[in-house]
Write a structure and sequence with these properties.
The chain crosses the membrane at residues 274-300. One of its GO terms (biological process) is glycolipid biosynthetic process. The structure is a single chain. The protein has 429 residues and is α/β, with parallel strands linked by helices. The chain has 18 helices and 16 strands. Helix 7 packs across helix 10 (207-217).
């Protein structure tokens, strides 16, 4: 990483956006963390000085920090003005990029960061963007010694680091993991800002290009250790969690697979098979979600359908997504649990002809996923970049969170900040 002194250790780009304002608050909390032994000079960046000033004033009020605005730098830059992005990157050690959808707005920021020696962290859950950036920029970032780390929010730090945590806690060789995400809400229910909805629409509408990208990359298959992990039905009952589940359509599987490839090819670690699901409760919820899914998959195939999905998120998502996003009450009452069921082999047992003889169950639990856990994960990833340099991959490059942080203290940092990793059970079969 760039070691020369820069005015700001962290710059939050897109600080006045819906998620950016929560990331700004989280950096402000980190700035006064009692465990901090040094200053944390930081700035917010975006197009409008007035909006950025308002975000800082709002954070100051919420955190009881009347002098906050005077402690934080303001950088004016615009995604459409590459020279302004260069100026921002020159002033930062790490840029926290909160401007999405990343398929439209992410690449210019990465380009500016690499060319100007800044590392960059984003919270993209868009596999096509993430995989394309690795293909295009990994070597350039490595040449500059900077780290470009995508999917560092709820997508996909809990899943990616959760698999690594499960592997580290198993007394033997972990070969396969299934994860089940459960979202808990309060009496006022759930709501997600439509920025996430738009990213999903553009992603599913462009699946053919993702397939082409993967075919063009010509990657060798990662070896299969132990029996092949069977896919569950589109709707399946999980006995352990006593509820129905459906496949999780986020970026977790793509990110975990890329991490496992990196760990196998670069660190000679045994690769882990992975599948991700989300629990949906009882049969009524299953039917509701099936209808929403069918609507979505039909409309996303056509240009006019995508326009309708974007224009009426609340209607087409059956109330899960809205242009306003969640209220503070909804955020305060929400939380998540990500449960991992792993299997593998105890030490000395061959993986070729024997059945797996160890099972392990672990959990990652945390506060509301999109606007509390995501900022915590993103900011702690940044603090890890700043403080655990000797434990990062030797050269820079474009990495998944697991590839970048598997040897660092990121899991310890997350545990201290309310995203808790724990072993539920472990047994020989």
């Amino acid at each position: 990483m760039a070691t020369e002194q820069r005015p700001f250790q962290l710059v939050v780009f897109g600080a006045s956006g819906f998620t950016g304002q929560f990331v700004t608050e989280e950096v402000a909390r980190e700035q006064v963390d009692p465990e901090r032994s040094s200053r944390l000079p930081w700035a917010v960046a975006g197009r409008s000085r007035e909006k950025l000033q308002r975000v800082l004033e709002k954070a100051a009020l919420k955190l009881g920090r009347p002098t906050l605005s005077s402690e934080v730098g303001i950088i004016i830059c615009d995604i459409a003005n590459p020279a302004s992005l260069d100026e921002m990157a020159k002033q930062a050690t790490v840029v926290l990029n909160c401007v999405g959808p990343y398929r439209f707005y992410g690449e210019p920021v990465i380009k500016a960061c690499i060319e100007n020696g800044a590392s960059c962290i984003d919270i993209s859950g868009e596999p096509q963007f993430l995989e394309l950036m690795q293909l295009k920029y990994h070597e350039k970032a490595a040449d500059k010694g900077v780290y470009i780390i995508g999917s560092s929010g709820f997508d996909s730090i809990p899943a990616d680091l959760g698999v690594i945590y499960t592997r580290n806690k198993m007394n033997g060789t972990l070969t396969a993991v299934e994860s089940f995400l459960t979202i808990h809400s309060g009496p006022e229910g759930l709501s997600i800002h439509d920025g996430t909805w738009k990213s999903a629409i553009y992603g599913f509408g462009d699946q053919s290009n993702l397939r082409k990208l993967r075919n063009a990359s010509n990657l060798k298959p990662v070896p299969l250790i132990g029996p092949k992990l069977k896919r569950r039905w589109p709707v399946s009952y999980c006995r352990e969690l006593k509820g129905y589940s459906i496949p999780f359509m986020g970026s977790d599987v793509s990110v975990v697979k890329r991490t496992q490839r990196y760990l196998y090819e670069n660190l000679e670690e045994s690769p882990v098979q992975y599948a991700a699901y989300i629990t949906v409760g009882g049969i009524t919820s299953v039917i509701k979600l099936m209808f929403a899914g069918l609507f979505f998959l039909f409309f996303v195939r056509f240009g006019i359908g995508r326009q309708l999905l974007i224009k009426f998120p609340w209607f087409f998502s059956f109330g899960y997504f809205s242009k306003q996003g969640p209220t503070q009450k909804q955020i305060d009452a929400a939380s998540f649990t990500l449960t991992f069921f792993g299997q593998g082999y105890s030490q000395g047992i061959g993986t070729d002809k024997n059945k797996p003889n160890i099972k392990i169950c672990t959990q990652v639990k945390g506060p509301e996923a999109g606007y509390v856990a995501t900022p915590i994960a993103m900011v702690q990833a940044a603090m890890t970049l700043l403080n655990d340099a000797s434990d990062l991959p030797e050269a820079g490059g474009v990495f998944t969170p697991g590839a970048a942080f598997s040897k660092t203290k990121l899991i310890d940092r997350l545990n201290k900040h309310g995203i808790e990793f724990s072993v539920i059970s472990s047994s020989e079969v």
